[in-house]
Design brief:
The complex is a heterodimer of chains A (349) and B (323).
Chain A lengths: L19 H19 L5 H24 L1 H35 L5 H5 L15 H32 L2 H15 L3 H16 L6 H26 L2 H9 L4 H29 L3 H6 L18 H11 L2 H31 L6
Chain B lengths: L21 H38 L15 H37 L2 H16 L2 H27 L15 H25 L3 H9 L4 H30 L2 H6 L19 H8 L6 H33 L5
The chains are: A mainly alpha (349), B mainly alpha (323).
Chain lengths: 349, 323
């Protein structure tokens, strides 16, 4: 009655221990640092660049020797994929670093509350108050147009639309997302040129340009949110005899309100930094302009560009304004994410 | 209309007589449909207004541009190098961004710990939120000094290849511009590819792993073939974005009107968008018309590229490998 014991699985190939990649990484960093110092070529950038290559070669070679070709390829792929991610994070970090580093010098309450009247040549005073007002106006106008338009279009796409018209609009919304920003600017410029003549300049024109860019973002995110609302909620509402439009207003939109808010904030953050369309529509001015419907107006992105192009002490103002802009954008993004994280409907799926 | 219900309406959706909120329904549906149609109207308006203003320049001959300092010859002779520069910068950006984005998307979808993946996705999305003008400053201030030694090395060692010939500092050339564009389009490409990779049928992946594949072999067998059309359309979307990007090129590039492939030389190329931003504020008359005409051409090109990208995506949705 002896039953043959099942064969004990034996590994026919060896694997590297889990700590091996880290050991190889430390070794390649050390070797690279040593060699670069010996060659007098030591900089942080070259250090990371070269040691990345050394590591990729070393881990592949080690793995080939111990584990064989297939696992070595796998290791190499893992390494490259990880490096690709790290490579993409470097611009983000360096960008934040350089904007904050160069921006804090002039950044402060005075910078935020003064405008550029009477600032010449090498004067280091001056600020962005007028540009902040302009940016708020332009973005506000864009929001006033594109938020209702975007929400209703999304409602159409999700609740009403069917057939070729729906597909056509969906396609065109996608295509509209890819409109070059400067083309939107040219469109707003020509439209007002044709209707009001060449003398008319106002924040309104820039607002229209940004609305063209912002609407597809709003549609996209609201549409995603409305699609997430479970059909059971709609059906329960219909079963109670609530008309469709009230169902949309009181059930669908109410359920999706957090996601919609967050989508709108992120869409705002997207367009608030648009420079090119404002460059061709609202121009630039040194002084505060409180009237969004008449006269040139300064905006933050254009201010950044103009001041940087001037160079000298103006470049410091450019960096401080860039920091202001970045803070606004990041804040909008952060609040948007938090709103959607904490206020979105839970359960259901 | 809402008070008296004609008999033939009774059959509609079983609402019975005097359906509540009928007027509200009609109004609400009307507003929604109008908004949807507004999108079509807006796009048409963009094309029509641009065409209307660009028309004088489109039909003008070379003499009419004699007064315009930045145009030599007729409109097409002037636009051709700009279009070339636009495409060249976008292609450089795409060549750099595509492998990077595929890597990042794979890292987020298949390599990073599940718990970290969403956070890492946000980090990449943050890149998309940064205004283009700040990317321009960053490219000029941070990236340019960083790549200058690299370009100098390329030019002195591989200078016999015409692509890399005759580099002169500063690196305000099309390659630097393309690199900045690459960073700017990485988030949009990554987001699209990531979505597709995450949709890879779980069973395909597990089948591959069960046959003893390494993770990389599984990706090559299951993930990449499934995501191929997604990758292509993501590339098109990135291309569309890179074609229309203005500020980074405007700040980084030292402009020129040549058609050549001297990637490391400054003052050779320019893009349509950057050229408009550069000359528009100081232009008047036929010069404005010419710039708008170039904008119209840019619009047509990006429109075509985006349409193609969406067409590929939609075709994939219908015949996806998941079913």
């Amino acid at each position: 009655m002896s039953v043959a014991a099942p064969p004990v699985p034996t590994r026919t190939y060896r694997r590297l221990p889990a700590w091996a990649p880290y050991a190889v990484l430390v070794a390649s960093l050390a070797v690279t640092a040593g060699v670069l110092t010996a060659l007098n070529g030591f900089t942080i950038a070259s250090m990371f660049f070269v040691s990345a290559i050394v590591y990729a070669v070393a881990i592949t070679a080690t793995s080939t020797a111990v584990e064989g070709r297939r696992w070595a390829t796998d290791r190499l792929a893992t390494t490259l994929v990880t490096f690709a991610f790290l490579l993409a994070v470097i611009p983000l970090i360096s960008l934040l670093w350089i904007v904050i580093g160069d921006g804090v010098e002039r950044f402060g309450p005075t910078f935020l509350t003064t405008d550029m009247v009477g600032i010449f040549g090498s004067m280091v005073e001056g600020g962005v108050a007028h540009a902040i007002v302009g940016t708020v106006y332009v973005t506000g106008i864009a929001g006033l147009i594109s938020v209702p338009l975007g929400i209703f279009t999304a409602i159409y796409l999700v609740e009403y639309g069917r057939g070729p018209i729906k597909r056509g609009i969906t396609l065109l919304v996608d295509v509209m997302t890819g409109i070059p920003s400067i083309v939107a600017g040219l469109f707003a410029y020509t439209m007002f040129l044709v209707i009001f003549g060449p003398a008319y300049k106002a924040a309104l024109i820039g607002g229209i340009a940004l609305a063209v860019l912002m609407t597809p973002y709003v549609i996209r995110s609201v549409e995603e949110m409305l699609k997430l609302v479970p059909n059971e909620l709609r059906e329960a509402s219909y079963a109670l005899g609530v008309p469709k439009w009230l169902t949309i207003v009181k059930v669908v939109l109410r359920t999706a309100v957090a996601g919609i808010t967050s989508g709108i904030m992120i869409a705002t953050a997207r367009v608030i930094g648009e420079t090119a369309p404002l460059l061709v529509t609202v121009g630039t001015i040194q002084a505060m302009n409180w009237n969004p419907f008449d006269g040139r107006i300064e905006t933050l992105p254009v201010y950044v560009f103009r001041q940087y192009a001037q160079g000298g002490p103006a470049a410091d103002r450019a960096w401080a304004a860039a920091l202001t802009l970045l803070l606004i954008v990041m804040l909008l993004n952060l609040i948007g994410r938090l709103v959607s994280k904490f206020f979105s409907p839970k359960g259901g799926r | 209309m809402a008070t008296t219900t004609p008999p033939q309406d009774q059959s509609r959706r079983g609402t019975g007589e005097r359906a509540p909120g009928r007027l509200g329904n009609v109004i609400f549906k009307g507003i929604s449909t109008t908004s949807g149609v507004m999108i079509l109207v807006t796009l048409a308006a963009v094309a029509i207004f641009l065409l209307y203003r660009a028309w004088p320049a489109l039909v003008a001959n070379a003499e009419e541009f004699a007064d315009v300092s930045f145009i030599e010859g007729n409109l097409w002779e002037w636009v051709a190098p700009l279009l070339f520069g636009t495409v060249l910068a976008a292609v450089i950006a795409l060549v750099v961004a595509m492998p990077l984005s595929i890597g990042i998307a794979l890292f987020i979808s298949h390599y990073a710990p599940r718990r970290l993946a969403q956070l890492l996705g946000y980090i990449i999305d943050l890149l998309a939120a940064i205004p283009s003008v700040i990317f321009g400053l960053w490219g000029f201030q941070w990236l340019r000094p960083l790549v200058e030694p690299l370009f100098a090395w390329l030019s002195s060692n591989l200078g016999f290849i015409p692509l890399f010939a005759d580099y002169t500092s500063p690196a305000r050339n099309i390659t630097t511009g393309g690199l900045v564009l690459a960073i700017m389009i990485v988030p949009i490409i990554t987001a699209t590819i990531r979505e597709v990779f995450l949709q890879t049928p779980r069973l395909h992946e597990e089948a591959s792993l069960a046959l003893g594949s390494t993770r990389w072999e599984m990706i090559r067998q299951a993930v990449l073939p499934f995501g191929r059309s997604g990758i292509i359309s993501a590339a098109m979307l990135g291309l569309g974005r890179a074609l229309g990007e203005t500020m980074a090129i405007l700040i980084v590039l030292s402009p020129g009107y040549a058609i050549n492939f001297f990637l490391l030389q400054a003052g050779q190329h320019n893009t349509i968008a950057a050229n408009i931003a550069l000359h528009f504020p100081e232009s008047s008359g036929i010069a404005v018309d010419a710039l708008i005409a170039s904008g119209l051409i840019l619009f047509a090109v990006t429109f075509g590229v985006n349409m193609l990208a969406r067409w590929i995506i939609n075709r994939r949705a219908e015949f996806s490998g998941a079913n």
